[in-house]
Design a protein that fits this description.
- The chain is of the alpha/beta class and 606 residues long.
- It folds into two domains: 347 residues, ABC transporter type 1, transmembrane domain (ABC transporter transmembrane region fold, Up-down Bundle); 128 residues, Rossmann fold (3-Layer(aba) Sandwich), CATH 3.40.50.
- It is 64% helix and 11% strand.
- It has 21 helices and ten strands.
- The chain has a six-stranded mixed beta sheet with strand order 6-7-8-3-9-10, with helices on both faces.
- A hairpin with a 2-residue loop joins strand 1 and strand 2.
- Helix 3 runs antiparallel to helix 12.
Length: 606
Amino acid sequence: MNYFQKIIRFAYPYKGYALLNIICNILYALFSALSMVAFIPLLEVLFQSHNKVRVAPIYNGINSLKDYLEQWLSYQVTMQLDKDISITLIYSIGLIIILFLLKNLFNYLALFFITFLRNGVIKDLRNKMYEKIISLPVAFFTEKKKGDLIARIGNDILEVQVSFLSILELLIREPLTILFTLIVMFSISIKLSLFVLVFIPFSGFFISFVGKKLRKDSNLVQKEQGNFLSIIDETISGQKIIKTFGAGISFINKFKESTFKFFNFSNRLLHRNNLAAPSSEFFGIAIIGILLWYGGHMVLIDQSIKGSTFLVFIGLAYNILTPAKSISKSIFSIKKGDAAASRILDILEAENSLKDSPNAIHKKSFNFTICFKNVYFSYEKNKIISDFNLTINKGQTIALVGQSGSGKSTIANLLSRFYDVDKGIISMDQIDIRKVKQKSLHNLIGIVTQDSVLFNDTVKNNLLIGKSDATDKELEKAAKIANAHDFIIKLENGYDTSIGESGNKLSGGQKQRLSIARAILKNPEILILDEATSSLDTKSEKLVQKALENIMKGRTALVIAHRLSTIQKADLIIVMQEGKIIEQGTHNQLLSNKKSYFKLVQLQQL
């Protein structure tokens, strides 16, 4: 329940619907009890077992209310029977129909209003969770499986939706139904009512015992569901590798192992969950059976209660079973939902280590220098960057080269503040970037990566990510600078052509030029090119390289490259090894030194 208390705060904007639901549930519970009481006059007419009263009773205060109502009812039935028994029968049946109509009308209205609250809470919860995912640092997603995140925002929230409705029924509707029914039962016979209440705790104890196991089982089911969704995602993304390396059987076995665990966990969970209804009904019928024995003794031997009244009392006792059964199911549902809620709150309450500091400033422009001073960075205890020092002047093109794992991309990630340094300072215009609002920092930076990140949308909408209010002329201008306009207009619908999942309808060179056009449209002051041409063929590389030269004019650029031919014109080339700078200079200077850079160039010329 602790997790649900945090989830329920999302219901506050819909408190009006909650109030209407409560009112309708109160009326439903009231008419549910009265509809059973209405059978008393009908049964008395049918069995003619009523006490004939031809003098109207006198009301003598609240203490004699029960006797007054019984006398008044007998008086009304007697008067009608003296006139016409068929009319009395019609009135009795009509009263029952009206009460049942009102009961079901308010039942529908209660569900009608709760729908707005329930779906509203789920909508807001999903939106909040998505906003949180957007705001979390990149490091968070390296630790979480994509399929698990999808399961949390999808299936876990649906589980909370079902459980959220259950908890509202548990707190309001069903307890009120039981309360009103018990009030009527006590008004009929205190002894019989107490007899019923003695046996109810046995049912509650059993439900509580089974419910304790449900949350653990539900958590296992949801975790395993996230696991096989991750396998599906990896399978779809890695189809080429799986097929060419003949890894299909391995992935099938991995998936089957996950679904087998899910099968076992789900069976255990459902077996326990399915105990709710039959166990509640069994305990309820057992109570009714004992009640029939005890009440039959009161009717036939003690004659302390009329047969028709006892039949209605049995109906009222059975009327408790349905809400009691609903409460037991709600308890099981809440246990499952509590596990789902805990997984959702893991995301909503995740620590964001990269929050803006309270005194963070909004930086509108980059004017002078970027300075890395004694920078150290480790990831999961693995040292990536050690004592890194570098100054980048405005308008310079700086190239980072070195073997894979030397820390080149990490430097770009630290400058973009996807991660924070462990020691040292990265400053922009002598301001620590940790004291700059992240949004304003990112507005100054444009990134083109090796793997073009495109979305399943049109060419136009992918470009508009760079500048949402760009005109068609601005889009075309950016595309032309990126050497992308010519291939775009040849597409089926030009700029309105959908490019598919991750842009898979385009070639590698086309995707990369589209990424460059998006960066051009943003018009950033600082450009990061992370191996932007390394995955392209020679023809595509030349087109992309020309586009990159166009975009770098007049900008500060940090270029990460494997192909050294693409960075010969850089103002400064930094050679890295194991997170440290081992050599730096211009292309010609480094060649003349005949050290690490010279060896790298020689290797690529072979």
